[in-house]
Amino acid sequence: MLSDKPQLHQYVLLVLLGAIWGSSFFLIKITLESVSPVTLTAFRLLFASIVLSGLVWVLGKRFPRDLQTWRYYALIGVTGNILPFVLISWGELHIDSGLAAILMAVVPLTALVIAHFWTEDEKMSLPKVIGTVTGFGGVVLLVGPEALKGLGDSVLGQLAVAFASFCYGASSVFARKVGLVKQDPIVNGAAILLCASLMALPMAFIVEDPMSLEPSLLSFGALLMLSIVSTAIAYIILYYLLGAVGANFTALNNYLVPVFGMVWGFLFLSESYDTQAFVALGVILLGIIITQIKGAVYKRLGSRFVMNGKRGEEA
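The structure assignment produced for this chain is given below.
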């Protein structure tokens, strides 16, 4: 059963998840300088699965033993890891990171629609729709509407990132629908990443030639960061939030991703931002707040608006 209202620590974890994944696009760009997309995906999954599997062993936890659960893990390994990781890595070779951020912001919209039809406790509501659309508008404003001018320049690259965002949204809702989120989040992350890495590694050796690559020290460091922080640690947070507060709330981290992309750019690349960026941040936060308005509160506000309107007519 989902929590009626996210707690403070869950908001903190949502922000932390956005901060972690906000660095992913930057790290992927660095890794791609000397590592090819499928190989990047395969070793990112492998290193992350080793970290989480080791954690499962150290903490004395156990993997599920039923075949059906492992089938679900394998399916999410493909749809929530291999496909989006490869598509994003390949897509970033052909489109700007700003446009990629906008396309990835489709995840909350995807999760909102799919959760409405696939779950019983995450139905669509007017505040959720308004808040989700507002958040998306904030992302466009943050990245800059001019980024949308790139639409059509590299259609395949854009479709790759857009489909990756659909995969993320769908796999998150699917995990809730089949009950995987009731499992320990560390076990879930380790099992899914293990399945994904076992499938991705052979693919890398078939499609590319990993042994012939000569990754730079910087690219290898970025790959380790992607594996340990952006994948292993992020997965623990992701599956905790999915089980505690649902797919719709968790998907909102995708609106924070470009925000933290801006923060990391300011801290590490000495980038500067104008007033529009801070206005956009306010719009994104407003969108997240609106999505958390419960139906009863919305109806109460609506009824007050109607009553005030009638009083105005009588006057």
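Interim note for the steering committee: The two ends are 48 Å apart (CA to CA). Residues 217-251 form the longest helix (35 residues).
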